[in-house]
TrEMBL record:
MF terms in GO: hydrolase activity
Protein name, UniProt field: 5'-nucleotidase C-terminal domain-containing protein
Chain ranges of the 5'-Nucleotidase C-terminal domain: 79-209
Cleaved signal peptide residues: none
Organism encoding this protein: Moheibacter lacus
Organismal lineage: Bacteria, Pseudomonadati, Bacteroidota, Flavobacteriia, Flavobacteriales
GO biological process: nucleotide catabolic process
InterPro entries: 5'-Nucleotdase_C (IPR008334), 5'-Nucleotdase_C_sf (IPR036907), 5_nucleotidase/apyrase (IPR006179)
Length: 247
């Protein structure tokens, strides 16, 4: 049976209000834990206190920011949601990167495990974006060698999951098929890859990101960059082109 140690969490709610009234908090000592079970009754005073904050949060999270005319499944290779996730991160990141450097990012690589749910045709809300990407991962741009892109290709060729890709196409285990934005991979060239800080550290076994030539943090969360994208378009346009051509 789970146990819950009661704490004065309501203090943070009180201090988050616009009021400048000060509250004195005294330490509360409890000798027993409260068991979480069907016999636990709601605290009506607490419910009354948090009700306006709960309502405001629900109104914010339920705001419709876009619409998808098709289902957006996450599973499988080249899935609609995997394609969309990478495409929108690449598009929005390029707006930042081009302004700073006058050039575009070459490609985007994310991870299947970072997509936390699928969507059916219909409205997309603020809450949906948090459900899609609940983590506070930062968007980063890594400059890597052509050899590192080859390592990435080998990893993706043998992966059992359809990791999101954008800006790259290839046939599994066919090195000569690798195209970066329509051009054949040059092992002597450096490429810019937008991803997140979790993968940059080798998360999900993506060790090809370790020891890049350089890294730039765009100082924006992946969730926020996705939010920006959805807010720009009344209706989402999904590119269903295959990135891994034989899957």
């Amino acid at each position: 049976m789970k146990k819950l140690s009661f704490s004065l969490l309501f203090v943070s709610i009180l201090f988050s209000s616009c009021s400048k009234q000060l509250y004195q908090v005294q330490k509360a000592n409890f000798t027993e834990n409260t068991s979480i079970n069907s016999n636990l009754k709601e605290d009506q005073k607490m419910n009354t206190m948090i009700a306006p904050y709960k309502l405001e949060l629900e109104q914010t999270m339920d705001k419709v920011i876009s619409y998808t005319p098709i289902d957006l499944p996450k599973d499988g290779f080249n899935s609609a949601l995997a394609n969309l996730s990478c495409d929108m991160v690449l598009e929005e990141s390029n707006l930042i990167f081009e302004q700073k450097h006058g050039e575009e990012i070459d490609l985007c690589v994310l991870n299947w495990g970072g997509i936390r749910r699928s969507f059916t045709k219909g409205d997309l809300t603020v809450k949906n974006v948090y459900e899609l990407m609940p983590f506070d991962n930062e968007v980063v741009v890594a400059t890597v060698s052509g050899e590192k892109i080859k390592e990435m290709f080998q990893f993706m060729s043998n992966a059992s999951l359809g990791h999101p890709l954008s800006g790259i196409q290839f046939i599994s285990n066919d090195e000569n098929s690798i195209l970066i934005n329509g051009e054949k991979l040059d092992l002597n060239k450096n490429y810019t890859v937008v991803t997140n800080d979790f993968l940059l550290k080798g998360g999900d076994q993506m060790n090809f990101f370790i020891d890049p030539i350089s890294v730039e943090n765009l100082n924006i969360k992946q969730r926020d960059i996705m939010m920006q994208y959805f807010e720009k378009y009344d209706t989402v346009q999904v590119n269903l082109d295959k990135r891994i051509l034989d899957k």
